[in-house]
Design brief:
elongated, TATA-Binding Protein, disordered N terminus, 5-stranded antiparallel sheet, Immunoglobulin-like, 299 residues
Length: 299
């Protein structure tokens, strides 16, 4: 049977069309251009981030930050970035920690964040990664670091009174100032020192005495660290930075041995090596009974 003319006509028309030059509409993308546009759109979408974009790490290292502060600041950072906390393992000295979280965007896509934590007597680190899309991967390290700094700057309010302090009515606040040069007005960090702000409010009818060496700090490794004298701190700063301004402020603003009358409040700075601390131990003497009373303040 011979092919019908209808079929031959269709074949001929098709061949004629194949021989015609291809005309592109002005402003319309070519096939290659459309492919590039599609690739860019997929690359920027969150759903393809795992296939097309490597995860970028956001690393934060902070000297003299305690494990407790690292844990608190990291949890606050993850929440600040819009994630819900899924798992939390607190870091401790020599023991790593981890925080994970999940969030959804406006298109119901799910992203996760994982932050590995480590802390020692000298520094604390937070290493974060996220499954966000390519566009967000580019900015993720800066976003995490900025949120971490903002969370660190926001003071974490903790109970300052132990049960014993509540009974005696003595309110003691001890705050290590990791970046405390400005608070004292002297370059303590040049000598690897840091100030610790101390405030004692005697809300009782008893008289207490604060003696030299009454306050000691406990490092991350549980070692006791005694404060150095203000005179010694001034000497170390002068040696580390000859001619530095404000050295006289070190002694002028130091916490002095003093008798604390009822309802009186005293305060000042003590000086310690610049590192991370977990608690302070304060010993006051009840003048009438001549007996010591100890107070422990967790950071």
């Amino acid at each position: 049977m011979k092919p019908s003319s209808r079929v031959r006509g269709v074949g001929a028309d098709a061949r004629q069309r194949d021989r015609r030059p291809v005309e592109l509409q002005r402003g319309a993308p070519s096939g290659f251009g459309r492919a590039l546009a599609l690739l860019a759109a997929v690359s920027l979408s969150g759903c393809a981030a795992g296939q097309l974009c490597p995860q970028r790490h956001a690393l934060v290292t902070q000297s003299a930050m305690s494990c407790a502060e690292l844990n608190q600041v990291t949890v606050a950072t993850v929440k600040r970035m819009g994630y819900n906390i899924d798992t939390y393992v607190a870091a401790a000295h020599g023991q790593p920690g981890k925080v994970t979280g999940t969030r959804r965007d406006d298109y119901d896509a799910t992203y996760t964040i994982t932050v590995d934590l480590a802390c020692s007597t000298t520094e604390a680190t937070a290493d974060a990664v996220s499954t966000v899309g390519c566009a967000s991967q580019i900015s993720f390290p800066n976003d995490f670091q900025s949120s971490f700094r903002a969370s660190m700057a926001k003071k974490v309010v903790q109970p300052s009174l132990t049960p014993k302090e509540e009974r005696t009515g003595v309110n003691i606040e001890v705050e290590p100032l990791r970046d405390g040069d400005a608070a004292v007005g002297a370059p303590l960090s040049a000598a690897n020192l840091m100030p610790v702000r101390v405030s004692i409010h005697n809300n009782t009818a008893r008289v207490y005495r604060l003696a030299d060496g009454a306050i000691a700090l406990q490092a991350q490794d549980d070692k006791r660290v005694d404060a150095i004298s203000a005179a010694e701190a001034a000497k170390r700063v002068s040696r580390a930075k000859p001619g530095a301004a404000g050295v006289s402020e070190i002694e002028a603003k130091a916490l002095q041995p003093v008798t604390i009358e009822p309802e009186a409040k005293v305060g000042g700075f003590i000086y310690v090596p610049r590192q991370a601390y977990r608690r302070a131990v304060v010993k006051l003497i009840d003048v009438e009974a001549e007996e010591p009373e100890g107070f422990s303040i967790e950071f």
